[in-house]
Amino acid sequence: MGSSAFRMLYSIGFFITLISLSIVPQYAQGITRHYEFNIKMQNVTRLCHTKSMVTVNGKFPGPRIVAREGDRLVIKVTNHVASNISIHWHGIRQLRSGWADGPAYITQCPIQTGQSYVYDFTVVGQRGTLWWHGHISWLRSTLYGPLIILPKHNVPYPFEKPYKEVPVIFGGGPNVSDAYTINGLPGPLYNCSAKDTFKLKVKPGKTYLLRIINAALNDELFFSIANHTLTVVAVDAIYVKPFETDIILITPGQTTNVLLKTKPNFPGAAFLMTARPYVTGQGTFDNSSVAGILEYKFPSFHLKKHPLFKPTLPPLNDTSFATNFTKKLRSLASPQFPANVPKKVDKQLFFTVSLGTNPCDHKNQTCQGPNGTKFSASVNNISFALPTTALLQAHFFGQSNGVYNPNFPINPFHWFNYTGNPPNNTMVSNGTKVLVLPFNTSVELILQDTSILGGESHPLHLHGFNFFVVGQGFGNYDPQKDPKNFNLVDPIERNTVGVPSGGWVAIRFLADNPGVWFMHCHLEVHVSWGLKMAWLVLDGKLPNQKLLPPPEDLPKC
User: Fold this and answer.
1) Pairing label, strands 270-278, 220-225
2) Sign of the dihedral defined by the CA atoms of residues 236, 237, 241, 247, in that order
3) End-to-end CA distance of the chain
4) C-alpha to C-alpha distance for 134 and 528, rounded to whole angstroms
5) What is the pLDDT confidence band of residue 27, given thresholds at 50, 70 and 90?
6) Is residue 555 within 8 Å of 535, Cβ to Cβ?
7) Parallel, antiparallel, or unpaired for β 441-449 and 347-358?
8) Which of 152, 240, 330, 441: disulfide with 511, CB 3.0–4.6 Å?
9) Residue 21: enclosing H or E segment and its boundaries?
10) Does residue 11 carry a pLDDT above 70?
11) How far apart are CA 436 and CA 406, in angstroms?
12) How many H helices and E strands in the chain?
C-alpha cells in the first residue's frame, strides 16, 4: 500500500475516532473538578462573642464540595495559619490513593505553615452524602464541610426525586465551643443567638432531601422536626430500605439522608427542628439543644405572627431508642445496589474498646483521672502513640524500624468480664502498633465496649473501607451463640458505627484497598486519649492491587 493511501486511511481512522469520542459523553468517564482550600484565620461572631478561628476560605462551616460518582477531585490546600494542617475526606474509599486520605502522621505528614498539598483522588462506586474535616489536633471543630456525591448522569435515586436538596450539618459541642450549631448557627434556644438561626424555607406539598451530617466533636445527637415525619433513605453514602421516623440518631462522623414531605397546604405555623445529645458516659456533657426553624413560604397577606411548634426528643440516656433506631437500618440490597457481605471469613478479630489511665507527669500537666492519674483510652488495652513520621511513608519506603510495630494483637492479652465489675488495674500500655492484613483478606471484627471507668457508646470510624454491621448486642459477646443471629443478607453498610454502651458490635469487611488505614473513635476527646489504631493492608499481586507511589508534593515532617 502506498504511503499516501496509508496516510488517508490513518486520517479517516483518526477522524472516526474523534467522532466516536464526541458521541460518547465526556461524563461517562467522570470529569475532573478543581477546588482551592486556603486555610486562614477568620473572625466569627456568635452568641455576642467574636472569636478568631481556623477556617477554609474564611467560611464557617467550610465550602461545599460537589462531585458525581466517577469524578476526579483535585483539591489544593494551602496553609496560611500557624498550626500544622491536614484534611480528611471522610468516607471516601481512596482506592489505591491512600496518600490523599488525610489523617496527620498516618497517611501524610501535616501541611506546615506556608506550604501546600494537592489532594488528588477519584470517587469510585460511591454516591451520597459524605463530608470533609481537619484531621490533626482538635482543628476539626471549625474545619469541616459537606462532600456531596451525586449519582452518575441519568442514574436516578432509588426513591422519589426531591424538589430540593439541603445540607444540614451539626457542629460544636462542649469544652471547645459555646454551643451546638446547625450549618454554623446556634439558633434561638441559646442566649443572644436569635438572629443566628438556620431557617429552612419550604413550599407546601413538596419533597425535600435533607443531607444530615454530624460534625460535632464529642456528641451523638437526636434530631427531630416538630409535627413532621422523616423518611430515612441513606446513611454514610449507602442507600437503605426506606423507613419513616419522627426522630433520628446520628453519631459524630455519620451522615443520614432523609426525605421531608411538607404539608399539602400552608399550615399557619412554623416548626422548630432541634438536636440534642444522646449521653451514655459518666463525664460532663452539654445538654443544651440547637434549633433551626422550618418555615413555610406563605402568601404576602399572611403577615400575622404564627405559633412555633417544638418537637419532643427522647431522654438524654435513651439507649432503647438508640438500639431500636439502629436495628431499622438495612442495606437496600437490590440488584443495582447489592450488599456484598463477605460470607467466608479469613480472619476473626476481637477488639476491646475501653477507657483507662496512664501515670501522670505532674510537672507538665494537670491530670483529672482517678487517683492522680490521667485519662487514656485504648483498643485491646493499647493506647495509640502518634508517630513523628507518617506510617504510610514509612511502610512504602521500607523504613518502618522505630516508627511502628507490626504486631497489633488480634484479641486482648487479658480476658475478663468486660461488661461486669471492672478490674482494679486500669492502666493501659502505649505504643504505635499496626495490624497487618494480606490483600483481599475478609475480616470479621468484634468491637466490645468495657466497663472500665464506665461503659460508653463509642462511634468507631474506619478509613479506606465501608463495612457491614452484621450483629450487635448488650453484655459480653458470645462466640457460640451470637453468630447464629448475624444478618448476612441485608446488613447496613457504613464507615462509622456506634459500639453500644455496655455491649458489642460485629462488622465484616474485605481488605481490598492497599495502604495504611486509621481506625478510631470519632469522639474527639477519646481520640486525644489514644482510642485509635491502624491497619496495614499489603499490596496484591496484580498491578491494579498495588498502592500508587506518593505524589511529589507530599508534605515532609
Assistant:
1) antiparallel
2) positive
3) 61
4) 14
5) very low
6) no
7) parallel
8) 441
9) helix 3-23
10) no
11) 6
12) 4, 33
Residues 410-419, mean pLDDT to the nearest whole number:
93
Overall pTM > 0.90: yes
Three cell numbers, residue 459: 462511634
- Return the HEC string of 426-448: CECEEECEEEEECCCEEEEEEEE
* Under 8 Å between Cβ of 242 and 232: yes
Strand segments, DSSP code E, in 407-545 are 429-431, 434-437, 441-449, 458-462, 467-474, 492-494, 496-499, 503-511, 515-521, 532-537
Task: Say if residue 309 is exposed, middle or buried (CB neighbours under 10 Å; 0-12, 13-18, 19+).
Answer: middle
Residue with cell 488505614: 517
* Percent of the chain residues past pLDDT 70, beyond the cut: 92
Instruction: Name the 3-class secondary structure at 284.
Output: coil
Name residue 429's beta-bridge partners: 382
User: pLDDT band at 360, cuts 50/70/90?
Assistant: confident
Residue with cell 485504648: 378
Evaluate whether 517 touches 537 at the Cβ level (below 8 Å): yes
Q: pLDDT averaged over the chain?
A: 92
What one-letter code names the amino acid at 296?
Answer: Y
Amino acid at 16: I
Nearest-angstrom CA–CA distance, 250 and 278: 9
CB 206 within 8 A of CB 297: no
